[in-house]
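Reading a protein record of the kind used here takes little practice once its layout is understood. An example of such a record is reproduced below.
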Amino acid sequence: MLQAEHLIFQHPGAARRFDLSFTASPGEVTAISGQSGAGKSTLLDLVAGFLVPVSGTLTLAGRDLLPLPPEQRPVSILLQSETLFDHLTAARNLELGLAPATARAERDRLIAAALAEVGLSGVLNQRAATLSGGEKQRVALARTLLRNRPVLLLDEPFSALDDETRATIRTLVKSLTERHGWITLLVSHHLDDIEALARRRYRLVDGKLTEA
């Protein structure tokens, strides 16, 4: 269980003060909606450790996450842009998500298994620049599999995709979340994404979350 209790934060010089409390469960997608500028990305940045609250608690299965810097938090992030290196192959992009000490044979096995799980075994040696938008997001999802972190943050990850591809990637995200027991937080202003994925829903208004 990921739980935030009264995370207090205020951007320097801004009038709005955030007071954020929520609960998200393993194997489920929890959605955060709200108007543009409401602070949805601020919430994800607090969970990821890119922003530091003035006070409050953030725990994962009872473990305090707030003292941990971003690189030590058990969190993966999938953004609207897939953040792949276009000049590298799909396999090489995935390899960057593995620990440097991983043996070559084990790297190859893990990468092949991750691509197979997202339905992209055939793109192993293709440069990212040659992949479609949906394929790039699948490769990015495969990278989260390799990182093997329990919390997945989704910041408008389907916005750049056409409707058919969005539906396919949404189904894949839901399936992976359930299969691996991820705690997935989805930030979106698209109602169809939220309805298709989220079991628990919050709306962010005036710096506070209310269950929707």
User: Anything to note?
Assistant: Residues 163-180 form the longest helix (18 residues).
